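To illustrate the input format used throughout this study, we show a single complete record. The first block contains the structure-token representation of the backbone; no residue identities are included at this stage. The design step must infer an amino acid for every position from geometry alone.
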């Protein structure tokens, strides 16, 4: 029987700045995800503002809420001004 693998996250000594709104957290994570897909190399802790989580953490919660029916597909759709 296998055992769970555990890889601890590095702990930052700098406290992250909280988001003012849920929308701000969502848009931050969407922008970071788009940048990553376009080839940007995202490295934790090197941005202008240190955040208390990673974009993937926000995406994971939104995906779970969408699967559970708390958020609809319309809630989580993001359109750019060109669309």
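Output of the design step:
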């Amino acid at each position: 029987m296998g055992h769970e693998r555990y890889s601890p996250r590095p702990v930052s000594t700098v406290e992250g700045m909280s988001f003012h709104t849920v929308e701000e957290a969502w848009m931050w994570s969407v922008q970071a995800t788009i940048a990553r897909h376009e080839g940007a190399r995202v490295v934790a802790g090197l941005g202008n503002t240190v955040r208390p989580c990673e974009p993937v953490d926000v995406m994971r919660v939104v995906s779970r809420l969408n699967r559970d029916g708390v958020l609809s597909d319309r809630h989580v759709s993001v359109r750019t001004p060109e669309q």
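Structural context for interpreting the output: Helices lie at 22-37, 55-67, 73-76. The mean pLDDT is 80.
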